[in-house]
Amino acid sequence: VQLQASGGGLVQAGGARRLSCTGSRSIFSINEMGWYRQAPGKQRELVASITSRSSTNYADSVRGRFTISRDNAKNTVYLQMNSLKPEDTAVYYCNAHIADGWDYWGQGTQVTVSS
Predict the structure, then answer these.
(1) Three-state SS annotation for 41-78
(2) Please, which residues have CB within 8 angstroms of residue 30's CB and are 6 or more apart in sequence?
């Protein structure tokens, strides 16, 4: 499956942004979809994930500020980001986890939060 991420850009601290990740085919049966991010000089980290049953998981640093959701009819996963902080600045990547060792990645979208 090909993943197309969009929605990145420049936003002021305290602002909001919504990222979208659209799959080239149905995501209904994909075990888990997620958003990762990678800041300069840092490792890629999990931001949030959502299972096929819509169970969610969040990194401690974003819990309460970010919300992940999925619209299977549109083959799309969203990441609503509120109360953004400069430390949220990173390239955000969409991920489709099919099974252990079997993942698909989107191309990444830059989010820059200015102070």
Answers:
(1) CCCCEEEEEEECCCCEEECCCCECCEEEEEEHHHCEEE
(2) 1, 23, 52, 96, 97, 98
Cβ proximity of 40 and 96 under 8 Å:
no
Taking alpha carbons only, the member of 67, 95, 68, 94 closest to residue 83 is 67
- Digits of tens for pLDDT over the chain (115 positions)? 899 999 999 999 999 999 999 998 888 788 899 999 999 999 999 999 999 999 999 999 999 999 999 998 999 999 999 999 999 999 999 999 988 889 999 999 999 999 9
